[in-house]
Amino acid sequence: MDSNDRDLYEAFAAVRRGEQARIPAFTRTSPNPPNDGFRGRLVAITACLAVMIAAAVWLASGAPGRRQRPQQATVSLANWKPPTDFLLETPGRELLQDVPALGEWSAVAVAPHPVERRRRSAKKVSH
């Protein structure tokens, strides 16, 4: 250490000693015994347990104003029908129930045009 560092060290040490002389001694000024924290926690835990037990008894006895739901018959999952099932019933659904056979024509598809029907009926009358 050179002389500048030594001077700084002694100056800071003098300031530290001066501050320590003004600091009062820390002694226990509370009349409570040292285990007061434990006693306070014990009281808090006991109070919490008492509140929890009281709430449990109140709920188990059927709290005033609390209604019990009537027991409903359980519905089998196989018989359950969703409330929006009607949305799946679209117009023309009966046409989609069967798969059409390819290569076969129904009578509706083969029926002649209305003008053609009139010509055929006119030919039948004239013969």
Task: Give a description of the structure.
Helices cover 49% and strands 0% of the residues. It is mainly alpha-helical. The chain has 4 helices and no strands.
Structural features:
single chain; 49% helix; elongated; 127 residues; mainly alpha
Shape: elongated
First CA to last CA: what distance?
142 Å
Which class do the helix and strand fractions yield?
A: mainly alpha
- The ordered string of helix (H) and strand (E) elements is HHHH
- Rg, rounded, reads 50 Å
- DSSP helical segment count: 4
The helical percent reads 40-55%
Low-confidence stretches: none
* Beta-strand residue percentage: under 5%
Mean pLDDT: 77
Instruction: Give the strand tally.
Output: 0
| Main sheet overview | none
